[in-house]
Design brief:
69 residues, alpha+beta, 4 strands, rod-shaped, binds zinc ion
């Protein structure tokens, strides 16, 4: 797995040998201890949630046909 050297955006210290692909871009700075996420190495793609509403309108047609008896 590829490792990266990344500069901490909080304190500016360079953290070496980070496995950003494994942590989805997250790293914990070895100097200041802050946990930050690098957007460059972010792997996760946000997928919009599609809600399928099941239409039950077909039942109404059946009811109307039954009236003709
Ligand atoms: Zn830091």
């Amino acid at each position: 797995m590829k490792s990266y050297d990344l500069r901490c955006p909080i304190c500016g210290a360079v953290n070496r040998g980070l496995y950003l692909e494994e942590t989805d871009g997250w790293m914990e700075c070895e100097k200041c201890g802050n946990v930050t996420q690098s957007m460059e190495h972010r792997q996760t793609v946000l997928i919009p949630l599609i809600l399928k509403t099941q239409s039950r309108s077909d039942n109404n047609k059946v009811d109307r046909l039954a009236v003709g008896m």
